[in-house]
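I hope you will forgive my troubling you with a question about protein structure. I should value your view on which stretches of the chain appear to form regular backbone elements. Here, with my thanks, is the record as I have it:
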Amino acid sequence: MPLKLREGDPAPEFRLPRDGGGEISLADFKGRKLVLYFYPKADTPGCTREAQAFSAAKAAFAKAGADVLGVSADSVKKQDGFVKKHALTIPLASDETHGMLEAYGVWGEKSMYGKTFMGITRATFLIGPDGRIARIWPSVKVDGHADEVLAAAKAI
């Protein structure tokens, strides 16, 4: 599914419930770099490896002036369990209504094993301190991805 946003576009605003309670929004990161990564389903093998890699690199991202936020359509309760089970250190937001997922172009028709269904494309957006999209990874392969995003965050 092709993404509709392009590098240089303003990042769409969002306000979502997050793990641990409360809400998180794009405005919370104003003036900082934000790695916004979308993942299909909490506590599945690929999503777990991706969340663990971003958690392990949290200090390096902070040193590069970047925050990391993971987003899926899972409930806050499911996100809380995912964070606790795997000792994740990055915030996770829940978009059960798919509004933000649609705004970023990552919610749509997918197919696997001959079945078609609606779901999330694993994609990552690097948002610059100016609130514009600096880099997009439209179809992520998990292994080595966090390191690649960290290098891009350091470069802007």
About this structure: The chain has a mean pLDDT of 95.
